[in-house]
Amino acid sequence: MDDLQFGTRNKRGDWTPGAHLEVAPMWLRPFSFRKVLAWVPEYLFPWNAFHMVTALLYWFYVVPDVEVMKTLSSGWALWLYAVNASAIFVMYGSVELFWYVRRKQGTRFKYNAKFPSEQPSDVFWFKSQNIDNFLRSFFISIPLWTLVEVLFLHAFAAGYVPWLSWSDNPWYLAALVLLAPAIHEVHFFCIHRLIHAPLLYKWVHSVHHNSVNPSPWSSLSMHPVEGFLYHAVAFWHLIIPSNPIIAMFQLHIAGFGAVNGHIGFDKLEVTESTAVDSHAYAHYLHHKYFEVNYGGDGLIPLDKWFGYWHDGSKEGDAMMQARFEKKKARMNAKAART
Ligand SMILES: [Zn+2]
Ligand SMILES: [Zn+2]
Fold first, then answer.
1. What are phi and psi of 268, to 5 degrees?
2. 128 burial class (0-12, 13-18, 19+ CB within 10 angstroms)?
3. Helices vs strands, H then E, count in the chain
4. Distance from the CA of 184 to the center of ligand 2, in angstroms?
5. C-alpha to C-alpha distance for 31 and 40, rounded to whole angstroms
6. How far apart are the CA of 21 and the centre of ligand 2, in A?
7. Which of 58, 63, 94, 137 could form a disulfide with 220 if both were Cys (CB 3.0 to 4.6 A apart)?
């Protein structure tokens, strides 16, 4: 595909999409029902549908019997870890293999023309972003993902929290499924903004931000505090009356869905003329500029409401620069006072 029909490339070879980011259409004014309708398929396919399918596959083929889960034990916890780790290895690994190792698409639709393997740096374990990110994912974040999973499954199985059945509550549970991506966005925005507070950033979140030019393995490369808080989004289903399948869907939006922001390409070409939108640009801008776009794509546009939104346009850039200037002035004034 010709990526220059969809955006521009600068001297360094970095590609920028021509279209600017837009928050979900129900927040746009004047309100357009037509735009909302046109957005629904994009909301469901392919990503949220994919997470629904994996949640169902887990429920029917991976998750142990309720009787087993009534007791906490390392046996079924290790089994879940093995499946989570293998699934991530296959899913993230395929994007890594085809787009980063074999580079089947070259740098078409790639925001940053460089590949992480070309940029060794001392901030990473073994000076390699790929090795560092891979080890942190498999030995820190995926175990914490599994811990969250074991705890909520046990809570449902042991009867500590209500377990609503699909036959008695079909409409309520269906609505909860549709709301899960919004719960994810609000939860992620809150914990993410929190760990951008100066000390927490230094101790916790800087680990994730070492990857200024993220690739799939960067997605779950996190400090343990972040790895736990991030996946703990599934615990909302212990507070809201829910069902373990929806809690699993919520967990998969976090765990499997983390790759979306870190794909590095705006579109993944599937055939000569078809491509899948990665939805990576908002979070790519977060890795590039740090203090913008703490949430996701603007499903619940908290970034817009708090003034952190960067839509990729010149105006977005100017707004960000003005905010940074103000912050600098505030810090200088504070330093002068003390
Ligand atoms: Zn990130
Ligand atoms: Zn961040």
1. -100, 115
2. middle
3. 15, 4
4. 15
5. 15
6. 18
7. 137
Report the separation in Å between the CA atom of 116 and the middle of ligand 1, taken as the mean of its atom positions: 14
pLDDT along the chain (338 residues), means of 10: 96 96 95 96 95 98 98 98 98 96 96 93 92 97 98 98 98 98 98 97 96 94 98 98 98 97 96 93 96 95 97 95 93 90
**Are 268 and 105 in contact, with CB atoms under 8 Å apart?**
yes
Ligand that lies nearest to the alpha carbon of residue 141, given by its number in the listed order: 1
Q: 333 exposed, middle or buried (CB, 10 Å; 0-12, 13-18, 19+)?
A: exposed
Residue 189 class from Cβ within 10 Å (0-12 exposed, 13-18 middle, 19+ buried)? buried
How far, in Å, from the CA of 325 to the mean position of ligand 2? 20
Q: H helices within 111-243, ranges in order?
A: 129-136, 142-157, 170-194, 198-200, 206-209, 224-231, 236-239
What is the 78 CA–ligand 1 centroid distance (Å)? 27
Q: Please, which residues have CB within 8 angstroms of residue 145's CB and are 6 or more apart in sequence?
A: 84, 220, 227, 231, 251, 254, 255
Position 338 scores a pLDDT of 83
Distance 205 CA to ligand 2 centre (A): 7
Using CA atoms, how far residue 303 sits from 91, 269, 281, in Å, is: 29, 29, 14
Give the number of the ligand closest to the Cα of residue 213. Answer: 1
- Ligand 1 centre distance from Cα of residue 147 (Å): 21
Show the CA angle centred on residue 192, arms to residues 162 and 40, nearest 5°.
Answer: 65
CA of 260 to the centre of ligand 1 (A): 9
Q: Which two tokens stand for residue 266?
A: 């705006």
